[in-house]
């Protein structure tokens, strides 16, 4: 079992930055691929980024590449998403997720992840 809790969302102006955190409890955090997804009401959940179990490998959606950075601190059981140069189209609920079946293969499909946090709202104003 892995429990995930996101924090760090909020309201920010376009061009600003936010750092999201995802605190994990339970087993398997440092064995798991971790990912960030986002969802706007009425739309499909969108893959944002993923990182391997030791943080050595990362993958990003084209829409955030060069602006967002995913990283993790396994000693603190915490996953992060640093978001820079935010745009209004980044407005969404952001959720972290754990794929405990694999520590290395970075999967963009949400159904590959077994555990999810509740999400944190990010709103980017013009």
Search tags:
mainly beta; 126 residues; four-stranded antiparallel sheet; 11 strands; seven-stranded mixed sheet
Characterization of the model:
The chain has 126 residues and is an all-beta fold. 0% of the residues lie in helices and 50% in strands. The strands form 2 sheets. Strands 2, 4, 5, 6, 9, 10 and 11 form a 7-stranded mixed beta sheet that branches. A hairpin with a 6-residue loop joins strand 4 and strand 5. The protein is globular and about 40 Å long. The termini are far apart. The mean pLDDT is 96.
In short, what is this structure?
By secondary structure, the protein is mainly β.
Could you tell me the strand content as a percent range? over 45%
Mean pLDDT: 96
Instruction: Count every beta strand, where a strand is a DSSP E run of 2 or more residues.
Output: 11
Sheet with the most strands, sense and barrel status: 7 strands, mixed
Could you list the spans in which at least 5 consecutive residues all have pLDDT below 50?
none
Order of helices and strands: EEEEEEEEEEE
Supply Rg.
Answer: 13 Å
Number of helices: 0
Shape: globular
Alpha-beta content class: mainly beta
Rounded to the nearest angstrom, the distance between the terminal CA atoms is: 40 Å
What is the helix fraction of residues, given as a range? under 10%
